[in-house]
Structures are given as C-alpha cells and as structure tokens.
C-alpha cells in the first residue's frame, strides 16, 4: 500500500498544505489504496512534504508523485482530454502553485491575527520559554522566501489584488462546468480543489477569502468535490483525514 507523508488535518482542511492535499486527491482520483503518515517530516528527502513510499520507492514533490503514479500504475489522469486542454490545465496549475500559493502563505504567516489563528499552532511542541523566538525566526525565514519570490515586495493590498485576479481567472475558466476542463476531473482538478478549499478556508480572515466567497462557481466547486472526496465540507474533511 502507498504511504503518503502529510502534516495531518488542520484549519478545517484535510491538510494545511495544498500540495499535500493535491497528492492525496491524486491518489483518490487514481483509485489506489493508501494510508497517511504524519510522522515523516524529519525524514523528508527534500525537506518538504508531501512525499510517498510506494513499496519502497520514495517520491517527493506533488508533480513527481503524479508522474510516478502515471508511469508505475498506468494512470492517465487526463484521459480523453486533448493536448490543448491538457496545456490549459498545466498552465492553471502553475498559476496556482507558483503565484496564488505565495499570496496565501503571506495571508497566513505575515498577518499577525491570521498567524495566531493558524500557523502558531505548529509550534506547540517548542518549549514555551523559547517559542516566541522560534516563531519570529521561522516567520522571518518565510518573509525572506516571499521577498525572494517577489510577491513579498508588494503591499498587502497589492498582494490581495493579485491573488483575487488569479481566482477570477480560475472562475472564468471553470464557468458552469463541473470540473476544470469538462464534466469529469482531470489531474489538475486535484490542484484546483486544494487551492480553492485553501482560499475559502474559514480559519483566516482576509480579502482573498472574502473575494473567493463572492465567486459562486468556486464555492460550489469546493462544496461539490469536498463532499465527493471527503464526505462533506471542511469539518467532515478534517474528521476523515484524522
């Protein structure tokens, strides 16, 4: 059985990382049996989650996990969709993973109230005496990463505007369809659901979430596919993942 190394449920989501959630959804789409292990972060081969252990074969990174599943298990996540549609799906994934992701990280980590509501919980295992220092150090590293990416060089209002533009583009592409490309999921829908659910996460108060809530097709997409894959909304998803 495939073992998926994850953080575990948090913030009312199956996992706080959209990349971990994407990897789990790919396994669900593939119909492959798997189990989740939340104790593997310190052994992560690339220092990040997710990664999988597929009968002794270790694969890190959600894109490489998808490639591995396709090659080893003969899965065609985009079967039936033409090359142009597949290219669109790939472009959407990169918009979400390489741009919207960093805006969400900013919302969660750089805004004090959101940090207290969410990421601060990651430090519960740190001794109370040094916890504030460790939190400041890690937040400083996150700030440096955001600055290096480029998005951290903008004002909060500008970052939110950019993130909302991503959501508008995604909403326009999905339109009235059930899935990104049509009436059945493709591989990129694993990414889309992870990021739509993350953008709508009720744990955090932000203009990005407020904007996402005004896009009814994205809300419906989240509700429909969370119910399908996790048996309900955010709370049910977290209970399922636990």
TrEMBL record:
Q: Which residues form the Metaxin glutathione S-transferase domain?
A: 164-224
Q: Write down the Gene3D superfamilies for this protein, in alphabetical order.
A: 1.20.1050.10, Glutaredoxin
What Pfam families is this protein classified in? Answer: GST_C_6, GST_N_4
Q: Which residues form the Thioredoxin-like fold domain?
A: 18-114
Which PANTHER family does this entry report, sorted A to Z? FAILED AXON CONNECTIONS-RELATED, METAXIN RELATED
Question: What name does the UniProt record give this protein?
Answer: Glutathione S-transferase family protein
Q: Which organism is it from?
A: Massilia terrae
Task: List the lineage, top down.
Answer: Bacteria, Pseudomonadati, Pseudomonadota, Betaproteobacteria, Burkholderiales
């Amino acid at each position: 059985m495939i073992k998926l190394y994850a953080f575990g449920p948090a913030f009312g989501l199956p996992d706080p990382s959209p990349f971990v959630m994407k990897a789990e959804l790919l396994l669900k789409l593939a119909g492959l049996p798997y189990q989740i292990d939340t104790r593997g972060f310190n052994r992560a081969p690339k220092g990040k989650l997710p990664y999988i252990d597929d009968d002794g074969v270790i694969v890190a990174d959600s894109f490489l996990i998808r490639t591995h599943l396709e090659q080893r298990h003969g899965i065609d996540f985009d079967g039936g969709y033409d090359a142009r549609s597949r290219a669109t799906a790939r472009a959407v994934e990169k918009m979400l993973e390489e741009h919207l992701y960093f805006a969400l990280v900013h919302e969660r980590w750089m805004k004090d109230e959101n940090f207290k509501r969410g990421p601060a919980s990651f430090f519960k295992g740190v001794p109370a005496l040094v916890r504030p220092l460790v939190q400041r150090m890690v937040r400083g590293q996150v700030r440096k990463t955001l600055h290096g990416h480029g998005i951290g060089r903008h004002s909060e209002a500008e970052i939110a505007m950019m993130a909302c533009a991503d959501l508008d583009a995604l909403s326009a592409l999905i339109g009235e369809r059930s899935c990104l490309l049509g009436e059945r999921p493709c591989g990129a829908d694993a990414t889309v659901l992870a990021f739509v659910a993350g953008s709508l996460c009720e744990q955090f108060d932000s203009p990005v979430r407020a904007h996402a809530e005004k896009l009814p097709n994205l809300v419906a997409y989240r509700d429909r596919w969370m119910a399908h894959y996790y048996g309900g909304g955010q709370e049910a998803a977290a209970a399922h993942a636990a």
